[in-house]
Design brief:
single chain, four-stranded antiparallel β-sheet, three-stranded antiparallel β-sheet, 5 helices
Length: 301
């Protein structure tokens, strides 16, 4: 039987299939002295390629870290969803998001207002209260004045109504003179005031009528005059210069001083007028001492 001599290790490594004479992993490699190798020219380099089953765990971990699973957002994907302020120059005035626009220098700046900010109704915080003062009925409200602008910071709207609307300030909402021709409803806590005016022509203060705007043609003191003592009630003015005017046609001459005094009032002036007419010139009249058959007397309480 021929003797099989061991083959060189370099030759065995280059073979696709081992041949007889190539040592296996279980064989002990003999300690063979190396003989000088004659120089036969350049030796081609041997390229050792890994087999299809070759695997590196570290390489797989690195690739997984770079790629990431499909359902995990990478940092660059997160940046893509946010405003890209440095991606490209922006045009001045261009919207870059809520409460964020492009400034003249290309940088993001905060505008005062943004129509996309949720509305905040400061009127919902108003509180109402009635106050009586010097014969007047006043409805006051603790009213809040919104701040200038709906933007709170770069990229953020005002979202706290108490902060946005500021501290309450007392404001007179309605002021009326209570009377038979006007009334105030509401003005209580969160209920705003509502004025109820009597229709024009509604009788008031016995001898007067409502003007439809809440005033009576005669203030209460005018009713002290006996309508039978005067043919017509003409006009009245309340306040510091309070007076009442009446048309008189008594069938005999009489002066307004006598007429007004009979009711405990003083005479202001008198005008001679045609029968059944209340109108008179705005200029001063003939005076309280002159008697007429038909005239208008202005009396003061």
């Amino acid at each position: 039987m021929p003797t099989i001599r061991p083959l060189p290790l370099a030759l065995c490594a280059a073979l696709a299939a081992p041949l007889a004479g190539c040592p296996t992993l279980g064989d002990a490699l003999p300690s063979v002295p190396l003989a000088p190798i004659a120089d036969t020219g350049p030796t081609p380099d041997l390229l050792l390629l890994p087999s299809p089953d070759f695997d590196l765990p570290d390489a797989r971990a690195r690739d997984a870290a770079l790629d990431g699973p499909p359902d995990v957002a990478r940092p660059d994907a997160i940046l893509d969803a946010a405003p890209r302020l440095d991606a490209a120059p922006c045009a001045p005035g261009e919207s870059l998001g809520r409460c964020m626009i492009c400034g003249d220098d290309g940088e993001a700046v905060m505008p005062e207002d943004d129509p996309d900010c949720p509305p905040l109704d400061c009127g919902a915080l108003d509180r109402y209260e009635r106050v009586f003062e010097d014969g007047l009925l006043i409805c006051t409200a603790d009213r809040r004045v919104p701040r200038d602008g709906t933007c709170r910071a770069l990229g953020a709207c005002h979202d706290e109504i108490e902060v946005y609307c500021g501290a309450p300030r007392p404001v007179d909402v309605e002021i009326i003179v209570p009377g038979p021709c006007i009334a105030m409803e509401g003005c209580d806590s969160v209920i705003p005031p509502q004025l109820d005016r009597a229709p024009e022509g509604t009788p008031c203060n016995e001898i007067g009528t409502c003007d439809g705007e809440g005033a009576c043609s005669a203030f209460p003191d005018c009713a002290e005059f006996d309508p039978g003592g005067a043919s017509l009630f003409c006009a009245a003015r309340d306040g510091i210069d309070a007076y009442c005017e009446f048309f008189l046609e008594l069938g005999m001459p009489i002066d307004c001083g006598t007429f007004c005094d009979s009711y405990g009032w003083g005479c202001v002036d008198a005008w001679n007028t045609p029968t059944g007419v209340c109108e008179h010139p705005d200029a001063p009249g003939a005076g309280c001492a002159r008697a007429f058959d038909t005239f208008v007397c202005r009396c003061r309480p």
